[in-house]
């Protein structure tokens, strides 16, 4: 049993947001203590040549990145990098600062190794985030910026909102993700529309040659999902990120309620099957047309290998950090490298998309 698993029960006695704030202070402080930064990196960052890959002009020394939601304001970039991630996706960031939804808004479903989050794009806004990124960018690993819409912006003005956020951050990220699939901003998922997505990526293409991605919901009807993803790719998107959290509350035994109604999105182990099923469909349809990043319920090397085979070039984790601790990336990469050898793969490039080529 790892040290983290021995102390996790005590950590879980804290309110989830309080625990996160403590972690944020610790990891943000790493940049001011080079000795600790070097010690953490030497322990957690292990290089496996078989996992190294170049995608869209960016180098990923392993396939595991951090999903957005953990470092909303780019305060922990250096600290998180010492844990072995190949890339960090920051945000979700909105053009103007936003408090998010009323608390409590983050809950653990410990028995299901899952989270229920109704955060609502709480962040400091692009100006504060840019100020933080200016201290580190350009960085040693790819930094993605996940962009959202302020909740007080009407859907009719959403395109302008995303454009302003992209323009503001365009010089401080290596790739950009348009989040139109969070369940925690009223009406946002209505933007998962063929016409809007076409306008969105046409706009982005006119502003930058850096890679751009569409992040989609796992709750869409399949035909609509495929149409929307096709629209994004044909309009200039570099790829797809699948998936955001789910509002299928049947996946947990006792979802948290607000005014008697379940709210927020579920992540973690309960999302595993649904996320992988979405990936399979996107892999079959779009593997040769764009890069796919798989997110949702990943906590084992076999999970990662399956996602890679089904068409994902990269994966991202978040909830598994909460349940497995800071050593999870090191463990997953080591086990993935060994598993690939067992199955006769010498390089990750040979694995990606083998089921859908």
Major beta-sheet overview: 8 strands, parallel, barrel
Average of the residue pLDDT scores? 98
The neighbouring-strand order within the major sheet is 3-4-7-8-9-10-14-15
DSSP summary, beta strand count: 15
Residues in helices, as a percent range: 25-40%
Q: Percent of residues in beta strands? A: 15-25%
Put simply, the count of helices is: 13
Q: H/E element string?
A: HHHEEEHEEEHEHEHEHEEEEHEHEHHH
Gross morphology is: globular
Structure, explained:
Strand 3 (64-66), helix 4 (77-81) and strand 4 (87-93) form a beta-alpha-beta unit. The protein has helices at 3-11, 16-28, 34-44, 77-81, 126-133, 158-169, 194-207, 222-234, 272-286, 301-309, 319-324, 328-342, 348-351, and strands at 53-55, 58-60, 64-66, 87-93, 106-109, 114-117, 143-147, 175-179, 212-216, 239-242, 257-258, 261-262, 265-268, 291-295, 314-317. It has 357 residues and is of the alpha/beta class. It contains 13 helices and 15 strands. Helix 7 (194-207) packs parallel to helix 8, helix 8 packs across helix 9 and helix 10 crosses helix 12. It starts with a helix and ends in a 6-residue tail after the last helix. The model has no long low-confidence stretch (mean pLDDT 98). The longest helix has 15 residues, at 272-286. The protein has an 8-stranded parallel barrel with strand order 3-4-7-8-9-10-14-15, surrounded by 5 helices.
